Amino acid sequence: MSSGKATPSPMKRVFSWVKQVALFMLFAIVITGAMDIWRGKDIPRDNLPDLIGLTLEGTDIDIKALSQDQAVLVYFWGIWCPVCNFVSPAVDTMASMYPVVSVAMNSGPDDKMTKYLAHKGYEFETINDSNNDIARDWSVQLTPTLMVFKDGELIHYTTGFTSLPGMWWRMLLS
Q: How far is the C-alpha of 111 from the C-alpha of 73, rounded, in Å?
């Protein structure tokens, strides 16, 4: 005796599964894009203060000058930030392809930062903002915060967890 229901072919099941995954990814992109716009609404885009500093390796950094010919990723983070533990490896990967400058907020003295970066194997340039002076000037209140600059202007801004593809497309579109 037959139940009367036809079972879908394996090809139809695969197509249905791919369609559901594509719809979920589209939904996630729309939601995260809307969240980025909402979270970035308060960041000033004009008349930003200069982001100038000395890295832990002793290199002078001027984001405005560095971003004249290429996009630069600026990463505000802290060693105390749990989300940064997931984002920092992706930022380190980006540093092998693009100029990346990180600003370590309230993360302790230089020797502690240097040991932390060596322990984690991170090679991105880091300005130690041990007193949060730079973060305060830039009104950065959340970590991680990622900014992309091109020609001295802020092009992209996001906070919270950001994936490697998310960083990569922001750099490509800059």
A: 24
